[in-house]
Amino acid sequence: MRLSKFEDAELLGQRLIFLDPYKKSYWEQLSGVFYVNNKEISALSSIELAYENKTLDEEEDFLLLAKYYMFKETPRRAAEVLEFAFNSELVKKEVDNLELLATSYFLSKDLKKGIAILKDAEKLTDDPKIAFKLGTYAFDNEDYKLAIDSLQSAKEKGWDEYPGRIELLIGISYLELEDKDKSLEYLSLAKQGIHPKKQIKKQVLKDKTIMDLIDDYLDEKRDDLSDYTKKDYKVRLANRLKPLLKVPVA
């Protein structure tokens, strides 16, 4: 089809929607025209308008729209779309969809809601990455009991990407809960990369101190923190760890 034909189809679609904005088929046709014409953003915008006019009813479109809002750096809007779709039973409560909703809340800096959604997702899968993600966000939100439970679940499900990482976070969590014996146990294991239940040596971290491990965690996970905040966090932990550990922490 020639360019002029595409333009004619586009103008016709816009005109039809102007005359009857509540007819879903018009929105679908216009969206399709824009895709064919390599106007992906315009196509997504037409899906957005269809949602606003309450004519959207396909799961794929809701998920696409949510990702579009994430692309536009408006994750709060993505969360609203997904919440509406879930509540209207237009999107299935599957692991990937729930994780997308949780991520939209995390990007909106709403850890509480994101964690609640991720807890639902974690119940539906044996994927250790979901449990680990839940544990780290719970840790970030200072919900240390949930962090410990989730991180232990991740380890039991087979998460082992960074030897000692889970033990480090559990150790710090126990420290925050004032359980010094448990904290010392897990922090010592983090230094060696050993899981307490199996006592299987994964990796000897001879040249790593506990604070080195914390540095690694902050550098890899906590991209949302400023350098000043990271430094302040490390100083606070160091002050609490020094009287607890017999080995140097920094």
Oligomeric form of this entry?
A: single chain
Are there runs of 5+ residues with pLDDT below 50, and where? 1-6, 34-39, 195-207
The overall pLDDT average reads 76
Proportion of helical residues: 55-70%
Describe this structure in words.
The chain has 250 residues and is mainly alpha-helical. Helices cover 69% and strands 0% of the residues. It is built from 13 helices and no strands. Helix 4 (59-71) runs antiparallel to helix 5 (75-87) and helix 6 runs antiparallel to helix 7.
Question: Topology of this protein?
Answer:
Elements: H1 3-19, H2 24-36, H3 40-52, H4 59-71, H5 75-87, H6 95-107, H7 111-122, H8 128-140, H9 144-156, H10 165-176, H11 180-192, H12 210-221, H13 227-241
Helix pairs in contact: 1-2, 2-3, 3-4, 4-5, 5-6, 6-7, 7-8, 8-9, 9-10, 10-11
